Amino acid sequence: MKHTNILLAGATGYLGNYLLKELLDNKNQVIAIVRNPDKLQNSNEDYLEIKQAEVTKPETLRDICKGINTVISTVGITKQKDGLTYMDVDYRANMNLLEEAKKSGVAHFVYVSAINGDKHRDLKILKPKRSLSLF
Question: pTM of this prediction?
Answer without folding.
Answer: 0.82
